[in-house]
Structures are given as structure tokens and as C-alpha cells.
Amino acid sequence: MHVFPVSLPLEFTLGCADGKPGNAAELFESVSQNIKVKRYSEALNDLNAAIETDPALSEAYFHRASILRQLCRYEESEKSYKKFLELKPGNSIGEKELSQLRQAQSALETAFSLFDSRDHTKGLEYLDKVVLVFSPACSKAKILKAKLLLAAKYYSSVISETGFILKEDENNLEALLLRGQAYYYLADHDVAQRHYQKGLRLDPEHSELKKAYFGLKNLLKKTKSAEDNVNKGKLRLAVEDYKGALALDPDHLAHNVHLHLGLCKVLVKLGRGKDASISCSEALNIDGELLEALVQRGEAKLLTEDWEGAVDDLKSAAQKSPQDMNIREALMRAEKALKMSKRKDWYKILGVSKTSSVAEIKRAYKKLALQWHPDKNVDNREEAEAQFREIAAAYEVLGDDEKRAKYDRGEDIEDMGMGGGGFNPFGGGGGQQFTFTFDGGFPGGFGGGGFGFNF
């Protein structure tokens, strides 16, 4: 990149724009100082005035071309370089900078194409390694860089890049929009809104600023409506509001993570475990360390009787927050439910509900015992014996009020002396032996001794 000299070894004088003679070295010193403080327009005005006074002043063309290249005004810059080379044929520095101009111009066009094709990383490389090396004052390249960074979700870098642009031009509408969008996607909505408002004060009809501003207002309105409906107990309305807010901008992850969590919590309250689990998973996909989403997903899995999944989630949550008693209580509930799910369902074995009366349980037992009595199932005696044991064991628990209450509370069968599947109505093997007598009895005996059913 060409560095402007502080002075040039030129001894001739020029007629300046006001008609007064001036020294060329002083002119170029003034141009150099203007460039240092980024007053490019003043520098160009001085050079244009010098060229108008002396069309043969080659150094003025050279410096004008260099400034225009840095500003990426490539067509104007190329004309000035060519004019300089007409006056100074074969000048190596001029030819080198003209080549750099063409490289930068091509690289900028490529970067725009890469932006359109969403190849953000490569587009940034072209800008940083070529365009902004040869054209460091190129506002188009700087804005494009901010757009590429925004598309790549490097929001802090967008804020930094647009900060430099706004320091030079505080009213740059594109920079205000991009900076506002970066704050928006970081969920710093107040700061985003201030940037949009400043831009709209400068140009009330700017379409992109209007879209961003009113889009943000609508999102905040929907979010507040959802939260208000939760507080009022209007949970179904809250569900619709949360879904509506999520539909507004699926890419707004920093805000949507809280919307997904809020929706999950409402769905858990409504008993919609499957939907709640999906919403909490969406939140955890965005932020895997979100403890509340992990807990709520555990509660949702309890609703769907995914006992192992609930235990896994709640155990992970308890490890992250070991002092939280609410999480520990939820984990204990899940572990108890998992344990209960693995024991035999005596109600199912007798074909009765958990609310059945003792009389209903007794009738069901008698019916099944008659059906599976081994003496009545000679052809499938082994299966009948197994079924008969299950039926008798179920009735041993459910036919006794105290044992049934303990079973319903999830206490271990072993605590009742049942030994899980060890109950044996036929005796033998250390199990308790029972004698059953049906009214009228069954002909013959079974198992080496009479047994019947006393009702």
C-alpha cells in the first residue's frame, strides 16, 4: 500500500485555485496531513485544484489516483493512474498501484458474489486480505464486511466494525441498521431499538430500518402477552402467544431460548408432556447448560411415563445444582416411578383398575383362578401353573388392604414377605403354601395334596 510522503522534492511552484502561487511540496504536505486525519474530500479538492492549474503535474494525478483507490472509487482511480503513466511512462510504482487497484476491484466484486451465495468465511477473506489492504477507506467494503459478520453470527465483531464506521460517519444508516441488528440478536433489545430509532429520525422512510424496528416491537409485544397470560392463568392463550412469538424470527436464538422454555413450562402445567419435552429440547439445543429447561424436560418425561429419560434429565440437573431441594425431590419422584415401572403390575394381572373395590378384585381373581386352574388345563399345565401363580400372588397383595396400600405407595414387595416372584400357592421351594377351596370344589387333587379356594 502506498504511503503518502510528508513532502516531495519538488522545487517548482504552482498556481493554486485562488490564483496565488504555491509550492508543490506544501501542497502535497497538506494532502498528506488531510489523509492522516481521513479528510479525503479536502485532499481531493486540493489535488483537483492543482491539476486544474497545472494539467501536467504528474504527482497530483498519482496522489489523486491513490486516494481514489483507497476509497474504492476504482473507475476514477484508474483514469488518474493512466494519466499519471502517460506523463511518467514506465513508472514502476504507478504500474504496481494500478495492478493493486485491479486486484482490489476484482476481490470486492467476488466478495459481493460470495455474500449472495452465503459463503461468509471466504467473502471475509477476500475483504480482509485484498480489498481492505489496498482500499482501507472503502466504505462499501466495510459495510459488506459487517453484513458478512452478521450473517456468520459474529455479533460482537459486527458491533466493533460498525463502531469504527460510525466514528467516521455517525449518520451512516447502513451501519446503524447493522449495529442495531447485532444488538438485537444478542437480545440487547433496548440498545437495538435506540439504533433503529436514530436511523429512522434521519430517514423515516428507510424500509429496512422500519422493518427491523417494527419487527422488534411486535416480538416484544407478543412475548409480553405470553407472560401476562401465564400470570393470569390463561395457559392456553399463553401457548398460542409463545408459538406466535417463536414464528416471528426463528433465527433469534438468544431470545427464542427463553420463549421455548416458557412454552415448555406452560405445556407441563397443562399436562402435555410430549409437546413440553419437544419445547424444552429446543431450548437445550440452543443452550445446553440451561438448568431450568433440563428440569422441566424431566417433568415432561414423567408425564409421558418416560421414567428412564426423566431420571437421566433430573439426575443431570441435580449434579449441576446439588443444593436445590426441588430438583432433588423431583429426582426422587422420577426414581420411584422408574422403580415402580419395573415391578409387576398386579392390577393388570387381575384385569382391574387401581380404583376397583375389594369385591371387584375378588370376583376378578375367582374368575381367573377358575380359568387357569391346572386341573382344568391338562394340555398346557406348565403355562397354567405359571399363570395361576401370578394370579394368586396378585390377589395376595390386592386382596389385603394393608398390603395393597403399601403397593400403591410404591413400597417394595420384598418388604411384605412376597419376594417379588417367589410366591408359590403350590408350596415347595420355601414359598408359603395355601389351601384353596372353591364352593363345590374340584374333583381330585393337585401337587401332592388337596388345595382349594375358600371365599
Automatic annotation (TrEMBL):
It is found in: Endoplasmic reticulum lumen. TPR repeats lie at residues 58-91, 173-206. SUPFAM superfamilies: Chaperone J-domain (SSF46565), TPR-like (SSF48452). Residues 345-411 form the J domain. It comes from the Eukaryota. One of its GO terms (cellular component) is endoplasmic reticulum lumen. Keywords: Endoplasmic reticulum, Repeat, Signal, TPR repeat. Pfam families: DnaJ (PF00226), TPR_2 (PF07719). PROSITE patterns: DNAJ_1, DNAJ_2, TPR. This is J domain-containing protein. It comes from Gossypium armourianum.
